[in-house]
Amino acid sequence: MKRLFKKLFDKTFLIYVALGFLNYGFCSAVMLFFKHELGVPDVPCMYISFFLQTTISFFLNRYVTFRGLEISRYWPVYFVISVASCVVIARVLLKKLLEYLITLPFFISIADWVQSVFFAITKKQIAPADFRDDLILLTCTFTYSVINYIGQRYFVFKPRKRDREYPPIPADRTDGGSDPDPRSAPEST
Fold this sequence. Notes:
Elements: H1 2-8, H2 11-36, H3 42-65, H4 75-101, H5 105-122, H6 128-156, H7 161-165
Helix pairs in contact: 2-3, 2-6, 3-4, 3-6, 4-6, 5-6
């Protein structure tokens, strides 16, 4: 159990969470700006956020979080499958479930309490129905981020078998010994 915990919550996870938090905050702010300030309807706002979050997430993961990993030549296919799974689960199924749950009295009272805390902090009044829609959008976006991490870490940027068999050769090798790695042997003609 301890090994599994260390494997899941390693340095890569912490980097992903830090960058993901910034990405989530930025994309959520853009989504809410488009919705409240520009009057764009919910669905286009959600997809604007989705597009931004996906694009930023890929580049952050490729060049910062999972840098140095050799990814498969099929990465575009893996990436599309991962993102499509995130969309179906978080943006379609979860959104429908939350839209149903938010109509139940228990969840309405929770949403109203959260709204009163939000108002006490920001002094900005938002209509209850709009605030509930915002909670649904933010919950779906957060869930999308979690599923996206799992998909990108264990599917898109997963080290391939060759990477596990032959770790990268250090560029500044100074031991002068022979290299058992067959990738470094000169090709014979």
